[in-house]
Amino acid sequence: MARRRYRARLPMVVMAAMAVMSSLAATGTTVAGAAAPEPGPDKPTIRYTEYGIPHIIASNWEGLGTGYGYAAAKDNICTLADTYLMVNAERSRHLGPEGRTSPGQNQNTTTNLNSDLYFQRIKDNRVVQRLLDKPAPDGPEPEVRKAIRGYVQGYNRYLAETGVNNISDPACRGAAWVRPLTELDVYRHAHAEIIMGSADALLDGQVNAAPLGASAAAQPASSPARTAAKIREAMAVSRQQSMGSNALAVGSQGVSGGTSMLLANPHFPWQGKNRMWQSQLTIPGEINVSGASLLGFPAVNIGYNENVAWSHTVATVAPFGLFDVQVDPLNPTKYLVDGVWEQMTSQRVGVDVLKPDGSLSKVTRTLWSTRYGPITTSMQGVALPWVVSAHAVRDVNMDNLRALNTWFRLDQAKDVHDVVNTLETTQGIPFFNTVASDRKGNALYADIQATPNITDEHARSCLTQTGQLLFNQSLRLPNVPPISIFDGKRSACDWPEDPNAVAPGLLDPHKQPRLIRSDFVGNANDSAWLANPEQPLTFPRVMGDTSAPRSLRTQELILTAQNRINGTDGLPGKGFTPETMGQLLFADNSRAADLALNATVTMCQNVPFGLILVDGNLVNVSEACPILAAWKNHDYTTDSRGSWLFANYWSLLLNGQGVEKLPWKVPFDSKDPVHTPNSLDSGSSAVRDAFGRAVLALRKANIPLNAPLSGIQTVTRGGEQIPIHGSISQLGVLNVVTPGQVDGKPDITYGSSFIQQVRFTAAGPPQALSVMAYSQSANANSPHYADQTKLFSAGKWVTERFTEDQIAASPELQIKVLN
Hints:
Elements: H1 10-22, E1 45-49, E2 53-57, H2 61-87, H3 91-95, E3 100-101, E4 110-111, H4 112-124, H5 127-132, H6 142-162, H7 183-194, H8 196-207, H9 214-217, H10 224-240, E5 244-250, E6 260-269, E7 276-283, E8 287-294, E9 302-304, E10 308-314, E11 320-328, E12 331-337, E13 340-343, E14 345-354, E15 360-369, E16 375-376, E17 378-379, E18 382-383, E19 389-395, H11 402-410, H12 416-426, E20 432-438, E21 443-446, H13 456-462, H14 465-471, E22 485-487, E23 514-517, E24 520-523, H15 552-566, H16 578-586, H17 591-606, E25 611-614, E26 617-620, H18 624-629, H19 643-654, E27 664-666, E28 678-680, H20 685-700, E29 714-717, E30 720-723, E31 737-742, E32 745-752, E33 754-760, E34 767-772, H21 787-793, E35 798-799, H22 804-808, E36 814-817
Parallel strand pairs: 2-7, 11-22
Antiparallel strand pairs: 1-2, 1-36, 3-4, 5-6, 5-24, 6-32, 6-33, 7-8, 8-9, 9-10, 10-20, 11-12, 11-19, 12-13, 14-15, 16-19, 17-18, 20-21, 21-23, 25-26, 27-28, 29-30, 31-32, 33-34, 34-35
């Protein structure tokens, strides 16, 4: 049935819709003694409200999945089809081997061929099928299976109704690779998302692994210190270009006019398979949850229900480890374990490849594995030569489909204690922290996830020399997780089994950090140590560092929370409200500018004759001094001037280092980690050189030094340039936005994506505001391709509709019943 538009004669339509809706479900609020909710509709029903947000209601899990699949395909079928092409190892067959894709979590891409070989090996090994054959918790719970069965039906129904040749999105209209789904396709996609934390760094090294031969053994090997430094530098760059997030949970002591609040601010890619998509999912009496998920997940990953709101942030746990195995120089596919030579296993993996003339050929490659896992010869692009030893990968998430169970249970959580119980009993979260608040006034931080069982004692016993340098703090760079390289010659160095863990090789969840408070907790991608600085946490080193410098974004998050709760931020009153939460996020304040702008202006004003020597060229910076001096608010709002100059200068000054490495007069002090380091040395030659280079770079790019941010940082939608506020993480701006190049054109590569704030009160439904920064649809012909992007640009929010009465009252209401 075609969708009908409900706009004319609005009062009668709303009254009729409310009458229909009252028979579908009760309001979203749990009330003691209230009558049981009416059953859901016989047919899955999608109610679209403002900005194309679907509210899906059904009488059972399969119907709920059907509604989700239909609505998701309608908005983003090309992005979804491209994802299924990847996880089925068919990109080279349809798009050619040299194209690029990004199986992992950041913007570093690999070739279609390498991606296909990686996923074909997983297919050949029946990894996902074996997990599906297992009962819960290892396999999906019954509700998950039913929802995914329905999702496939909904997706396929939309495709059948529309027809491949009539898809409105030109990105895949008529493409042979857009086809009906199977349930296995969806589970393969879920598995690919769960393992992307390791695939990102190790995919190319695994599919290209081959011994270098005897001649290479005569060449001098890289020192452990040099290898460790290169890996950490590469991982630091990767982290700066990958997904991140902020999340802040505020308890009863920090909220004005409510019992708790949550701010969810994930920083996800703006293109491709890791786009988020918003929905509300309701089965009366069983589940009523609203929020966003990664495309193709028929559940809510970040959102809220009647009593709990939660979000995730990328954690400082490496979801993989390496094992250094000594190989036989005459037969490098043999390796030594406990004094006995073992033969590596070989596997021929082949994929179809499209040739320039349109015909297909087969490319095959031999991939190698050990008892610990596959061999890799690089990590994040850093070579790990297979000469006298080789490196095997163990991925903590390769046998993890439990994450699906985790998110389905979180969608039904009753309070933060229920959240903790879900995280502990499923151990499905792949590489995320969880931050949550509940109606009772609690704020929760928990880094309970699938973590390698590497206790501090085990690490001391088994780390190689390179592994010690990577795992410990001696080479610390911002947000880089502790990476283990263990001695593979000893079987005792494999990850041991813990009886309290859900699966073999996992760390006991009770040893993983968590904190419940009534003021606030938060995370901005640093370790768990300062979830709240009043109560520092301790935990095994595998989960991150302690007593070490925090990122400027972590400092900004903590100071924002403390100052608002204390009423010292310049805004009226004390405690968070929806208005102040939104104002503080979209103020786009830069912690770096707070700490260093005045010293930078002083340096600029004191430069002799206003001239700085840069690579033999004299750069006149005198024009820049008053521009930065006038930048009073230290903000990255669209009308700020001087902010782009400061961003370029700051990036050059950091030069990939941690902020603590800059020339501060007051160094980092672990007793005052939120306020140190500080006091930039205005007389430093490094400061002067970086500033001169920034001025020179902007002039070469023909960008005025006082250009407003709106004239530089934009996205193009339908030929219109939309200015985007926010900036890069290194500036300590919470609203992270990272400009770059997409298909050779300026665009935002990743950053604030689905932003949501939720407030609970003692009674009544949750109060939520949200905005999808890149809008619901990637289809340029969709009415929801740019609508929320413009809203985000203006610093505005969508007032969410949660109860049946709120949905029925939408002036944009459209209803689709899947007969």
